[in-house]
Amino acid sequence: MKVVVTGGGTGGHIYPMATVANHLREKHGSEILYIGNEDTFFPDKRLSEYFNLPFVGISSKGLEGKNPLPFLWRNGKGLAQARKVLKKYQPDIVFSTGGFVSFPVVMAASTLGIPYVLHEQNTIMGKVNRLASKKASKVLHTFPIYQNEKTVVTGNPVRFQAPLSKEGEHILFLGGSGGSVALNEAGVEFALAHPDIPVLIQTGKNLYDKTEELASRKKTGNNLTLIPYANDMMDLYKEAKCIVTRSGSGSIFEIANLGIPSIFVPLPNSAEDHQKKNALFFTQENAAIMVEQGSNFQTNLEENLVELWQKDTVRNELKENLSRLAIRECESKIANELLSVIDNHTTHKE
């Protein structure tokens, strides 16, 4: 079975795609080709090397501003490139996790009669997945909120599956692979105000120096540890008694699987406010706490975080509810859906 996988621009699109790709390769002997962004500004090529996925880069661009010409030119070029790659590779199926680079790929697949399956990580479908869903063979969802004849809820195939056996000893601030100025600053302020609580901040590589300078200027104590980035996130998760993080789908479902009590701070400008909707899904199930950025952000965050740190009963209740929301072995479920589409497509061709 030959499979083209696509999706990129952020780790939230790439990690689930790569997890499924490696499962297909290891469990089903599939040949894999990853089509992602050719622009090295994006992490696609770097992460393809990390996951050992054969990679082809194509031109692509999101729709930004009022001038559509760059969008049309770059994606038109990408469509031609994707058609050329697909015609040469002859995959049985295309699996896409979204991001604007995936649009030329699934459109090329459609013009060549190659079936494609979409995976949506968030509560709100991204623009590319919405546009591509009409001709998709199946649309796979992380959250159990969409139902129709070609929709299947599979969960999000994140890196970590098993719950942690014991709590860590830090409050961990996680702003994603690129870091977050707001969360980094909030972590520094919290460490300054609570010198008896150990705080660990993953600052992001590009924000490390700025965060270190802030901590030095504020004269924080030795309860604060800064690291720019962790290649193995499990090293960080094991240190966490509780976490403050954004509410991208990948992060929150890793947290659900691991069972770490958390405060979600939705990215204020996420597309269609999907991070807030992701966080609301968890808070409505009493599986996390949500604190939004605003005028009282630091005060609200500190009050909730101190309570979470101090009260075993609060953390245990969140852990219990997180275990109900955890969805494991998602990559196996997705692989079975892909195999089903291939079988159905082959039958109709015959």
Draw up the topology in text.
Layout: E1 2-6, H1 11-28, E2 31-37, H2 44-50, E3 55-58, H3 69-89, E4 93-96, H4 102-111, E5 116-120, H5 127-132, E6 138-141, E7 151-153, E8 170-174, H6 181-193, E9 199-202, H7 208-218, E10 224-227, H8 233-237, E11 240-245, H9 249-258, E12 262-264, H10 274-284, E13 289-290, H11 297-310, H12 312-325, H13 330-349
Parallel strand pairs: 1-2, 1-4, 2-3, 4-5, 5-6, 6-7, 8-9, 8-11, 9-10, 11-12, 12-13
Helix pairs in contact: 1-13, 3-4, 6-7, 9-12
**Low-confidence spans: pLDDT under 50, at least 5 residues?**
none
- End-to-end Cα distance: 17 Å
Q: Can you list the strand order of the major beta sheet?
A: 3-2-1-4-5-6-7
Report the major sheet: 7 strands, parallel
Description:
The protein is of the alpha/beta class and 350 residues long. It folds into 2 domains: 2-157 and 328-349, Glycogen Phosphorylase B (Rossmann fold, 3-Layer(aba) Sandwich), CATH 3.40.50; 170-325, Glycogen Phosphorylase B (Rossmann fold, 3-Layer(aba) Sandwich), CATH 3.40.50. The protein has helices at residues 11-28, 44-50, 69-89, 102-111, 127-132, 181-193, 208-218, 233-237, 249-258, 274-284, 297-310, 312-325, 330-349, and strands at residues 2-6, 31-37, 55-58, 93-96, 116-120, 138-141, 151-153, 170-174, 199-202, 224-227, 240-245, 262-264, 289-290. The strands form 2 sheets. Strands 3-2-1-4-5-6-7 form a 7-stranded parallel beta sheet, sandwiched between helices. Strand 1, helix 1 and strand 2 (31-37) form a beta-alpha-beta unit. The longest helix has 21 residues, at 69-89.
